[in-house]
Specification:
two-stranded antiparallel sheet, about 10% helix, about 90 residues, two-stranded antiparallel ribbon, Alpha-Beta Plaits, alpha+beta, 2 helices
């Protein structure tokens, strides 16, 4: 790559700077009856917002989830559905 080309790169956001806000259209919902706890969803989550819940199943931190759907697409058992975001 030529040395005179500048590629802008930003650092990952932390704390409130990385919060999703009100623009997400879909959010992932995990169906525990289909989940086999393989953690593929967490592996592919670019925002690292899937963690282990108290019952051992994955849970999504919706404050930071962008709703991209990669977790649902990669889930081998199709335990994650992308549902419309509902605001009250």
């Amino acid at each position: 790559m030529p040395s005179d080309i500048v590629i802008p790169v930003s650092n990952p956001a932390e704390a409130a700077a990385g919060q999703t806000g009100l623009w997400r259209v879909f959010k992932p919902v995990i169906d525990k009856s289909k989940c086999v706890k393989c953690w593929v969803c967490a592996l592919y989550c670019m925002e690292d917002v899937i963690d282990e819940g108290p019952d051992g199943y994955p849970v999504v931190d919706y404050e930071f989830c962008k709703g991209c759907g990669i977790c649902a697409n990669e889930c081998p058992t199709k335990a994650i559905d992308m549902v419309p975001e509902v605001r009250e």
